C-alpha cells in the first residue's frame, strides 16, 4: 500500500469515526432533553406558556410572530419600554423591503403581524426567573408566578445613562441626537456633525459619518486618543478633533439640533451642527438572567455558535442582549426568528405536540384574564 493510499484511508476512517461521534452526541443530547424535560411533568401545572418571550424590540416581536405562526401558544412580555431603543430611530433605511420608515412604525407593524398570527401580549414585565426547574418559573411585576416550557430572552441594551446629565440630550434624542452612526449616517448628507466620545468608538462613528457629512468635529475630554485599532488613527480630510472638550449642553430650535456648547480648556465654546453622535458603550440588559445564564465579562448573554441556545436547554436569547459586534435591527430580528425555531425544536424534543397542546389548553396562562 502506497503512502498516499495509507493517508487517504486514514482520513476516511477518521472522518467516519468523527461522524459517528457527532451522531452519538446528537442522539444523547436529544435523549437527555426528553428525559430531563418530559412533557408529562406538566399535567397538573397551571399558568403554562409554551413559548414565553421577554422583550418587545425587533428580536422579541419577530420571535413571537414566528412561534405564533407555527401554531405555538406564545406570550410576549412588553417590558418597561415597548419597542426598545428602536422606536427612537427617525429614519430607518436598512430594514429589508422598506426604503425609509421610522422605528416606531416598523415596531407597530411587527406587533400587528404577530398579534394577527395569534401572539398574546402582556403589558407586564418579568421581574424574576428560575431556570433550575422545568417548566421554568417566571415572576411578573404584579406578583404572578408563571410556568414556561421555553423562554426567549430579548431584552436588548441600554445606552442612555451615559451623558445623562447633559441638558438637551433627552429633548433632542431621535431629532438629531443619536448613538448609531450606521443607522443615521446617511441622514447627515451635507450637514455639520459633532461626535462626542473617547477612543475607538468615537473614531468609528466619525469615519462612518465623514463619508456623508460636510464636516465632522470630534470632541474628546482627553488630550490625545488611545486607539487600539491602527486604521482608526487615519482621519478623513473633513474631520477635525478638539481635545480637552467637555460637553455641557445640546442646543436646538423647533425640535431639531442646532449645535452644542462645550468647555474647552476652561473656555465655553459653541459648535454649530445639525447632528450630534454620542459614543456610548452599550449595557446589556441581562440583569434579570444574570446568575442563571452564562454571560460574557461585558454581561452579554452567551449563545452556542450557530444557534440562539443559552447555557440552559430550553432558554434562548436573541438581539442586542447577545451581540456586541452587530448592532442593527435586522440582525436582531433574524436572531429572533432563529430563537423561535430553536424553541420549537426544543419543544418537539421534549414531546410537546398538537395532542399535548390540546390537553393543556385549559392550563394555559391568558394575559387577558
CATH superfamily of the largest domain: FAD/NAD(P)-binding domain
Q: What characteristic shape results from the CA principal axes? A: elongated
Kindly state the number of beta strands. 19
Q: How far apart lie the N and C ends?
A: 76 Å
Strand count, sense and barrel status of the largest sheet are: 5 strands, parallel
Which residues sit in consecutive blocks of at least 5 with pLDDT less than 50? 7-31
- Average pLDDT number: 86
CATH architecture of the largest domain: 3-Layer(bba) Sandwich
Q: Give the class from helix and strand content and strand pairing.
A: alpha/beta
Task: Tell me the Rg in angstroms.
Answer: 25 Å
CATH fold category name of the largest domain = FAD/NAD(P)-binding domain
Q: What features would you highlight for this structure?
A:
369 residues; alpha/beta; FAD/NAD(P)-binding domain; 2 domains; five-stranded parallel sheet; 7 helices
Give a quick precis of the structure:
The protein has 369 residues and is of the alpha/beta class. Helix content is 28%, strand content 22%.
Task: Explain what this protein looks like in three dimensions.
The protein folds into 2 domains: 39-158 and 282-359, FAD/NAD(P)-binding domain, CATH 3.50.50.60; 177-278, FAD/NAD(P)-binding domain (3-Layer(bba) Sandwich). Helices cover 28% and strands 22% of the residues. The longest helix has 34 residues, at 3-36. With 369 residues, it is α/β, with parallel strands linked by helices. The strands form 5 sheets. A 5-stranded parallel beta sheet has the order 4-3-2-8-19, covered by helices on one side. Strands 10-17-11-12-13 form a 5-stranded parallel beta sheet, covered by helices on one side. Helix 5 links the parallel strand 11 and strand 12 (215-219). The chain has 7 helices and 19 strands. Helix 2 (58-69) runs parallel beside helix 6.
